[in-house]
Here is the input.
Amino acid sequence: MNRDTRLSDVLHVLLHLNQVDEPVTSDRLAKSMGTNPAVFRRTMAGLRNAGYVQSGRGHGGGWSLVRPLSEITLLDIYTALGQPALFAIGMRSNNTDCLVERNVNAALKDTMAQSEALFLERFGAITLESLLPAGSVPRAVVCPKVAPD
Amino acid sequence: MNRDTRLSDVLHVLLHLNQVDEPVTSDRLAKSMGTNPAVFRRTMAGLRNAGYVQSGRGHGGGWSLVRPLSEITLLDIYTALGQPALFAIGMRSNNTDCLVERNVNAALKDTMAQSEALFLERFGAITLESLLPAGSVPRAVVCPKVAPD
DNA sequence: CAATTTTGTATCTTCAATTGATACATGATT
DNA sequence: AATCATGTATCAATTGAAGATACAAAATTG
Here is the structure.
């Protein structure tokens, strides 16, 4: 599988959205994400459903933040994306009569669970606000790719 | 991508190898792994190079353990496999001028690094011996799939 | 109301990495 | 010499994300 970059992608976009006053179109945000508008909308759908952003149609439409970045954690966004699979490794089968396989699977699952718990705990402690560039001015465009043409 | 099951697979095989006296062929072990001999050999190559198992050709050939399970940890095996990618998530780009993206990537990388460190630490603390079925008798065949036909 | 803008979504194709499958040369044993 | 088993090359299949295109629906503008 390809590396899943959705989380990295939407975080980038959300931070930029914070720095703009008016709604920004999928077309422009997709460029800042390095992809196309349809992929962008598909990826952002979960965040809209979860109430972190809103989108409007027609003239003057586009995407805007609903809640302040200080109230959103990385865990919130990861959850809004549907908690994509974290690990690339897994077990072949899971319901087997083989005692050896059961022990192996249990050890792997336990380790993965502990590692994932730490992961999510850390995510829950990081607000999007803390990822803004040091000394960033609200509504200043930082990334050239989201600036108007 | 498919879930990477190589670690789970080889652990299963190693534990069974411990319970058999003579070398076991790729053909039989592949069946116990639920795959074919070529896949099995490809997967086990790293363990042979790392010196945990040996393989012999011709009549009476096959695979056997070189070191006792008490001296092998999950981390050893994971390393012998070439430390396959642990996480399914990643970042789209990595060298960018965008300050926002740099901060996002740094936060994700840091979290992944901590989570992976815990993962490897746990792996280093689990010996293959500890995964043997409770009360298992050395060289007793436990899994029907590796028993002679 | 008609034209334009923009989203929402369905439907492909592409891509990357593991996994599966076949073939065959090489080496060991009988 | 025949047989057995590994070592490895090569190609197809699989899976889920990502890329691309198309178009209906909704909102704004003139």
